[in-house]
Amino acid sequence: MTPTSESVLDAQHGTATEIFTGALAACNIASAFDRRIRFEGTRMQRLISDGSGPEEIDLAAFKKIFVIAIGKAAVPMLDTLLDRMKRRQGVRGICCAGQRPAKRNWRFRYFEGGHPLPNEDSFNAARATLALLRKARKDTLIFFLISGGGSAMFDLPLDPQITLEETIAFHQLLVASGAPINEINTLRKHFSAVKGGRLALAAPDAAKVSLLLPDVPLRALDALASGPSSPDHSTVNDARELLVKYDLAAMLPPSIRAFFERTDLPESPGNKGWRPPFFPKPARSGPVPERRVPAVTSMTDEDPAFQNSVFEILLSTHDLVENARALAQKAGFFTVVDNSVDDWDYAAAARYLLERFHALRARHPRLCLISVGEVTVTLNRTPGAGGRNQQFALTCALELQKHPGQHLTVLSAGSDGIDGNTQAAGAIADPTTVERARTFGFDPEQSLAAFDACPLFTAIGDSVVTGPTGHNLRDVRLLIAEE
Question: Distance between CA atoms of 46 and 35, rounded to whole angstroms?
Fold first, then answer.
């Protein structure tokens, strides 16, 4: 590589990072609130109504207002709502995020839920939320502030005899399965007492407003945090078929395998044939009492538990990709968006996007190919330090080494600032990555096979590090070419 080529690649790394961080910064939660919702006095107005509910809600009509904030963006979403909503009397709630904020509102209980695996606070937050929601009446308004990460941070088994350790093993198995997020969350919904619409059901008479920051495909919004406040249209049979599809049943903890094999396993709210579950509390001593099975009850989206609900998408991957497109065009790139690899295996996604990239740059030498969404990784061994974005970037690096001297750069990073079990958001690759990694003593093929890409990228200075962003709008992949 000549010094000129090295400087061009350095500049490309900077440009790719600026597009990623700039697109993320433009997805401002406070601005998103102001585009969708306005508070004037005691009234909340929906500025972009989709006809799913009232365009205006008078907060003065309610004696109590509960706010349940769940997920990686729980803290900024809660802070923004409270800042915009001047009313304080009768407002109480729960905030379950990845960490407790330094500044806390005394009206709220804060929990530090685990991610990507639940912890004790995940259970405690779920129990506290159910206890609060059971106090809701017709004169109660509930705000559900839901963002990505909530499936692990906030959980409680439907069967109270299943332990936290067993629940962690269940989540770990799902994360390693290679299944797309909507299928993983189908299993989580049917396992959990607080997912698949069961939070809405805990307060059936209350009015509800769900404000969403989805990290799932928009066609599968009920998969966001496994849909705690929305009706679930998946069935118990769907969940069982997924256990067979991914060969998971034999690897489940015995208690959870028995749970999914129950002939009386209840459907989640939103399905015909739904019925309220009856799982006995663990007995302090003596035998477990005989189960009473309630009569089957029909339930649809028209049930009052969901009929008085409003759903608003504050931000999505659409905002993220449009912001990235605008920044790439401003930098002078011919820009193409291709989101077709969503939920693909990371290696297949890398092959496809690189093939598309090379074909496009033959006609457009100064090119930025943008792709958002998530790829999947199937773990068949204990992983090293890495995540799907670094795995994707290293796969691209092994391909890009076939193009020495060319000005090609790939960035792949998570909008939440965290990739897998690392503190990096992702990584950047170019035609020199493999050679530079070898000079530091790394074997890139071995790092890829061991799911251990983070040490390699960290050593050569090509990790993307943002810290937790308070967002979770899925991943961004940028493929950049210059003459």
Answer: 9
Query: Which run of H or E residues covers position 423?
Result: none
What amino acid is encoded at 264 in this protein?
A: D
CATH of 3-24+317-482, one of 3.40.1480.10, 3.30.365.10, 3.30.70.260, 3.40.50.2300: 3.40.1480.10
What is the C-alpha separation between 212 and 50, in angstroms, rounded? 14
Q: pLDDT tens-digit profile of 184-199?
A: 999 999 999 999 999 9
pTM of the model: 0.85
Measured in degrees and rounded to the nearest 5, phi and psi for residue 174 equal: -65, -45
Distance between CA atoms of residues 12 and 408, nearest Å: 8
Q: Residue 177: what residue type?
A: S
Return the half-sphere exposure (C-beta side, CA atoms, 13 A cut-off) of residue 113.
35
Residue 293 confidence (pLDDT) above 60 = no
Check if the beta carbon of residue 27 is closer than 8 Å to that of residue 315: yes
Q: Residue 236: what residue type? A: V
Residues 324-344 have pLDDT tens digits of 999 999 999 999 999 999 889
d(CA 469, CA 101) in angstroms, rounded, equals 13
Please identify, in words, the CATH class of the domain defined by 30-313. Answer: alpha beta
Predicted pLDDT of residue 297: 29
The CA distance from 87 to 59, in Å, is 8
Q: Which residues are paired to 144 by β-bridges?
A: 68, 210
Smallest Cα–Cα separation from 414: which of 115, 1, 93?
A: 115
